[in-house]
Structure formats: structure tokens, C-alpha cells
Amino acid sequence: MLDNLKQQFLEFSGQQHQNVFFAPGRVNLIGEHIDYNGGLVMPCAITMGTYLLTAPNKDGLFRFKSINFEETLEIPLKESYEKTGKEWYNYPLGVIHNFLQNGKKLEGLDLLYYGNLPIGSSLSSSASIEVVTAFALNKLFGAGFSKLELVKLSKKVENEFIGVNSGIMDQFAVAFGEKNKALKLNCDTLDYQAVECDLGDHYLAIINTNKPRKLTESKYNERVGECQTALKALQKELNISNLCDINAETFEKHKNLIEDSVVLKRAQHVVEENDRVLQAADALDQNKLEEFGKLMYASHDSLQHLYEVSGTELDTIVEFCKQYPGVTGARMTGAGFGGCAIALVKKDSFDDFSKKIKEYYTAKIGYAPSVYSSDIGTGVVEL
């Protein structure tokens, strides 16, 4: 594949590439809609992601090309940039803008992207593009940012340049992922621990609903607001900065402060899901996959009934997984409203699982899902 990308770069740029970078996508194993509530999440990097080939040019231009989209774009080097429309190149453009706002000197560059992550599928294709661009610019122009600073810069791009109020989990997992390990990440302090994630005789199956999801067009920002409302209510009696500063027991004692029944459900999910991450880390640490699988199902049930972000497509996938004997656990992953589910599937059952879930889903939804098997991969790297 890389040979093909190198040839395409030559055709696009008229010169040989000089560097190749890769940033993975991510799945969140458990801990959903926690990252903007200051709690614990457990993402891992996957082996699919975004490739970026670069070479300098002397034309004072940023030349963007993606194998995944039609546009080829030439943008003159300026002091700042603004988002235009919904095109994919806003993500690297936002990174360039933030480098410039930080006083970093950039020069003309040809950039060719290729991603094998399904777009809008909750596998963090946007964070993958942001981080691979930031990592490349940092290396090529000697900007001197630490990896954590690149993560924070990429999150700022997502929040302020793109306009999505997401937390830091996606960019963090894309940058810091480790092979065969999950990251137990505290989204408030950014302290993290790499947790052994030996899946043994299981694959990590990724099942894409093939229902495109656009975060800025979904109810994602609405959920953020509901959590902020719950926090303000609890702060009348509790000295807390985030919903995840309390456990389920404390929440139970003070939940009467939240008068809106919908807001109450949102907060209950967040607090209980945060507790589940701690339990999941212990289960993985002790190699108790069956226990971890039960926590995955409990997480999905909460996202379906309390947080209400799953939808018919994701529920149909998990419904099938619960009745299929070769599956140990399953849940939606990512923001929801479409996107992907993940499942722990016995390796010797995977082909049969893939065939039967497609039949089951198609009969209910009217079109087929896509099913992938993935290993747990490493974070952003120069190849």
C-alpha cells in the first residue's frame, strides 16, 4: 500500500515524498461520554488510521490532497486561517493555524493523506488527521512541542476551529496508544496508566453501522449542556468540579438536587460509567475477560436507556451479540448516534459471527454493516 501512496504523491506533487507519518484511529473500550465530565476512560489505538506523506515546496503554499476525497487544494502561507465549509482539509488547516498562533514558523509543504478509517464512524478519523498533522509539522519544522502539547493543540483545533465540544480522549489515545494495552486515562488530570489488554483467543471486532454521524449535527453538544446543568445542581451541596468527582453512592444521596428527570438520567449514566471503568481496569489486569464483557454490556444498556445516544442500529448489533455464543461482550463505542459498536469475539467464531451479524442487521435495518477485526496498535509515529 505504501508503494502505491508514494507513487500517488509523486503524481500529485511532482517530486518524491521525504517523510511518511501514521496516526491510528481509536476505540474506547469503556467509559463513554466521560471525557468532558472529568472522569476515567479506557481507549486503545487500533491498527487502522491515517497516513501522511510530505515534502517541502518553495512556492509558499500548503498543498493538500487526500486519496479519500476529490479536492486538491492550494492555500498560500498566511498569518492565520478560518474554517471554510465542512471539507476535510479544515482539520489540517486548523492545526496549521494553531501552530502559527503559537509563533511557530512554517514554510511551504505538500501533504498527501490517506485514511482507512470509515469517516463518521466513531473511530476518531478527525483526531487521527489532527494528530498526524501536528506530529508531522512538529518534526519537520522543529517546533519543539511535547507529545502532550500536540494532543492539547489538536483538541483545541477540534473545539475552537471545527466547533465540536469534545474532550481530550480521542487525541490522547491517538498520540499515546501502546500495542496490546488500553489507556486508563483521567480526563481531568491527564494522568494515565497503560493497562495490559491481552485478548487471548478473542478478536476486537469493530462493527460499523454504516449510518454516517456528524458530531456537530448530532445531539452531542446538547448532552454536554445537560451534564453541565446536572453539575451546577449538585454543586449546591457538593464541592466538586466535575460530575466524575463523585461515585455512585454519593450521587444516590444527593440526586434529589437535580429536578429535571432527563438531566438526572444523564448524570446517573456518567457517574456509574466512571465507576465501571475502574472495575474494567481491574478485570483486564486480572485477565478476567468474562467480567470485562459483562461491564461492556452494562455500559451499552446505560448509554441506551439513561444517556439515550445509541439508536436502533447500534442496539441491533448489541442485541445480536448478546445471543451469539462466541461473543464475550459488546457495546457501542464513541459518541453514538450511529458509528460503530465493538465486540470481543472468539477467533474461531469470527467468520461465522461476521456472516450472521450482517444477515441479522440487514433483515432489521435494510442494509448491511461492515465488520472488521483489529489488533490494539501503537500511537502516532514516523514510518
Automatic annotation (TrEMBL):
Keyword Nucleotide-binding attached: yes
Enzyme class: transferase
Residue span(s) of domain GHMP kinase N-terminal: 90-177
Domain GHMP kinase C-terminal: 281-361
GO terms, molecular function: ATP binding; galactokinase activity; magnesium ion binding
BP GO terms, sorted: galactose metabolic process
Residue stretches in coiled coil: none
Domain Galactokinase N-terminal, chain residue ranges per copy: 8-55
Transition state stabilizer (site feature) positions: 26
Reaction(s) this enzyme catalyzes, per UniProt: alpha-D-galactose + ATP = alpha-D-galactose 1-phosphate + ADP + H(+)
GO CC annotation terms, alphabetical: cytosol
Catalytic residues (positions): 170
Residues reported in the UniProt entry to bind Mg(2+): 126, 158
InterPro entries with a match to the protein in the record: Galactokinase, Galactokinase_bac, Galactokinase_CS, GalKase_N, GHMP_kinase_C_dom, GHMP_kinase_C_sf, GHMP_kinase_N_dom, Mevalonate/galactokinase
Compartment list: Cytoplasm
Family: Belongs to the GHMP kinase family. GalK subfamily.
General function of this protein: Catalyzes the transfer of the gamma-phosphate of ATP to D-galactose to form alpha-D-galactose-1-phosphate (Gal-1-P).
Name of the protein in its database record: Galactokinase
